[in-house]
Amino acid sequence: MKVTVIGAGTMGRGIAQVFAQAGNSVMLTDIYPKALEDAASNIRSSLERLSRKGEIKENIDIIMQRITSTQELSAGSDSDMFVEAVIEKVETKESLLGQISQIARRDAIIGTNTSSISINQLSSFVTYPERFIGIHFFNPVPVMKLVEIVKGERTPESLVRKTFEIVKALGKDPVISQDFPGFISNRVLMPMIREAILVLEEGIATKNDIDKTMKLGMNHPMGPLELADFIGLDVTLDIMEVLYHEYGDPRFKPPVTLRNLVNARKLGRKTNEGFYKY
Ligand code: CAA
Question: In the prediction, which pLDDT does 81 show?
Answer without folding.
Answer: 98
